[in-house]
Amino acid sequence: MALVAGTGPGNEGGPDSGASRTLQAYQDLRALILSGHYEPDSRLTESELTTQLGISRGTVRSVLARLAQEGYVTAAANRSARTRSFSVNEAVEILETREVLESALAANAATRATEADIAAMTGTCERMWDVQTPGGREEYWKLNRRFHEQVRQAARQATLSRFVDSLLYPLVMQQYRDADRSHPRTDSVREHEAILAAIVTHNPEAAAAAMRHHLSAARRALQLKFTTPAGS
Q1: Is the pLDDT of residue 124 over 50?
Q2: Is residue 160 predicted with pLDDT exceeding 80?
Q3: What is the DSSP string of the chain?
Q4: pLDDT tier at 3 (50, 70, 90 boundaries)?
């Protein structure tokens, strides 16, 4: 993990260096949480984070306060912070909202994507087919995240992107993804290709529909697996 030069619990500096250390520590811990380094509802102690990030306890508290405000961790007075976990209903609501927002981003991408954007998305889709093998799941998830980020970049719509970031859906997917599946769904690659085709042909309605269909598959799978039918 990249840390700011000269950081550490006993390293003092001016206001600017302190702000830089706090920002870097926030970015480092946020990246660890989003990467799945911690399991949902994992305990985060000040002493461990002080050693891991090379910062003071005061900086740790500032970082955890910001992450709690943004929803990445939960914290109560006089208790250790814990990484966020989600109920099934919370997860479904987040995924439903993601469908709406990312469908709008796909529509924007269909009207604003450049040749370079399209080339990047095409390369990612091609690589997705290469990892359709047992053991290829982790690499596929990385490519999946890359493709969705490429769509967002092509959309050039900062407000929608900020709303997507606030959903914390990567944490939902880490908590509820199917650990029994050794390789990704073949249909998932085709769904990405349908989104790409609509963007290539500059068809915003088709791009939005293809994105919504793709994202709804994850939500439906979660509901089928974890929601108990009424009366059962």
Answers
A1: yes
A2: yes
A3: ----TT-STT----HHHHHHHHHHHHHHHHHHHHHT-S-TT-EE-HHHHHHHHT--HHHHHHHHHHHHHHTSEE--TTS-EEE----HHHHHHHHHHHHHHHHHHHHHHHHH--HHHHHHHHHHHHHHHHT-STT-HHHHHHHHHHHHHHHHHHHT-HHHHHHHHTT-HHHHHHHHS-TT-SS--HHHHHHHHHHHHHHHTT-HHHHHHHHHHHHHHHHHHHHHHHPPPTT-
A4: very low
CB distance 173 to 218 below 8 Å: yes
The dihedral built from the CA positions of residue 221, 162, 116 and 2, taken in this order, carries a sign that is negative
Three-point CA angle 170, 171, 174, nearest 5°: 85
Q: The whole model's pTM is what?
A: 0.78
32-86 pLDDT, tens per residue? 998 889 999 999 999 999 999 999 999 999 999 999 999 999 987 667 899 999 9
Spatial CA neighbour of 110 closest among 191, 177, 39, 194: 194
Among 188, 194, 219, 229, which Cα is nearest to 208's? Answer: 194
Q: Give Dmax (Cα) for the chain.
A: 63
- 81-98 average pLDDT score: 93
